[in-house]
Design a protein that fits this description.
- It is a single chain.
- The protein is built from one helix and 29 strands.
- By secondary structure, the chain is an all-beta fold.
- The strands form seven sheets. Strands 1-26-25-24-23 form a five-stranded mixed beta sheet, with no helix packed on it.
- A hairpin with a 5-residue loop joins β8 (116-122) and β9 (128-137).
Length: 391
């Protein structure tokens, strides 16, 4: 995440979240660095469908959405700590969350039975807190119980705090964490990324936990159950800014924000998720970056450089809806600096092409998927948009 040259009218809103972060002095690093063996090219292709963005919620400082599995109600979160459903504030953490840099209320999900809402936020001490709230339908909306603390994660800095949450196909809770690095990178201090490759650290990971009546437990199948961070499930990420599971295949898709040069999107097949590493900080995408060499990591499915106004990836969802049939099977994601909505389109041979769809979302920060598989784009400055067929 790094500060981009966005329109002046949006500068105040962007500065509040700093979803795009200061790259520091990039002169020391050659962006045409050594490529990892096996890197595959992804060609630009024509959009498979004409797509428009339909405004469904006007709300400032929106950073994410989740949908109730029973009635499809949309829960929207704001960076400063509110949870809003149908225009009503259900939870208000204002004053309890840190809202500078890449901190705040950053993640939300609802359990498969609809009974529990889970939030990820940075408290005023800079610590990540994951909490659960019981949900009760009132007939006109929802009420939430007092929070139960599930987990805290000490953060070494006020950036790369991750925050994304998802319920996986296995019913377990998945929690995204960044490497926690604060401040600009330099040649002498290029990253905090070594923690991302350390299975004993919860940082730079996707964690996997089981929700219980008394909190959380480490579920069977986690790859490092005897380590200091037994919740760790996927390693080697700088800041996984949104990840999701394909509704049909169970594959995990991760948008990992790059440093100086490259943004990456990685698909992990359902059987290859546990113990996978995306390679940070030995690699930025498929390019050698810093730290000790590593023997093996998962190469990105797609990476792109910082040009054409792009500089910070936002992970999304494989489209499994019915409103735009020609998009089915394509992975939708975007870039917060350019505001583009992009698609990785399967080529029928196991490869992918990349297409830029028509909608441009100002200060794009997230995507959401409803119970019918329709995809939504979230704008920090303008609220929530549903992706629909172009008229």
């Amino acid at each position: 995440m790094r500060i981009a040259a966005l329109a002046v009218a949006l500068a105040v809103a962007v500065a509040a979240l700093l979803i795009v972060w200061d790259r520091g002095d990039e002169a020391w690093r050659d962006c045409a660095g050594e490529l990892a063996t096996g890197t595959a090219a992804v060609e630009q292709v024509s959009p498979p469908a004409e797509v428009a963005a339909e405004a469904v919620l006007e709300l400032e400082n929106t950073v994410g959405v989740a949908f109730h599995p029973a009635d499809g109600a949309m829960f929207a979160i704001t960076q400063d700590g509110t949870v809003v459903v149908d225009g009503a504030t259900v939870i208000d953490l204002t004053g309890q969350v840190a809202t500078g840099y890449e901190q705040g209320l950053l993640g939300i999900t609802v359990t498969n039975d609809g009974s529990t809402l889970i939030l990820d936020y940075t408290d005023t001490d800079g610590t990540t807190r994951v909490v659960s709230h019981g949900l009760t339908a009132t007939g006109t909306g929802y009420t939430a119980s007092a929070p139960s603390l599930l987990m805290t994660i000490e953060q070494p800095g006020h950036t790369h705090n991750g925050g994304h949450l998802a319920i996986g196909p296995d019913g377990y809770l998945y929690i995204g964490t960044g490497d926690g690095r604060g401040g600009a990178y330099t040649e002498e201090h290029p990253s905090n990324g070594h923690v991302a490759r350390d299975p004993d650290s919860p940082l730079g990971k996707i964690l996997r936990v089981e929700l219980t009546d008394t909190g959380i437990e480490t579920p069977p199948g986690n790859p490092w159950p005897d380590g200091a961070a037994p919740e760790a499930y996927v390693a080697g990420m700088r800041n996984p800014w949104r990840f999701s599971f394909d509704k049909d295949t169970g594959d995990l898709w991760v948008g990992d924000v790059g440093q100086n040069c490259f943004e990456e999107v990685t698909r992990l097949a359902a059987g290859d998720i546990a113990g996978a590493s995306l390679g940070w900080d030995a690699f930025e995408g498929s390019h050698r970056f810093a730290g000790d060499p590593i023997d093996e990591h998962t190469l990105p499915t797609f990476e792109y450089p910082h040009d054409e106004g792009r500089c910070s990836v936002v992970g999304g969802y494989v489209y499994r809806g019915s409103a735009i049939p020609d998009l089915v099977g394509s992975y939708l994601f975007g870039d917060s600096c350019s505001g583009e909505v992009l698609a990785l389109v399967p080529d029928g041979t196991g490869g992918w092409g990349v297409a830029s769809l028509a909608p441009h979302i100002p200060t794009l920060v997230s995507f959401g998927e409803d119970v019918d598989g329709e995809v939504y784009a979230v704008s920090l400055s303008a609220g929530v948009f549903r992706l629909v067929p172009a008229p």
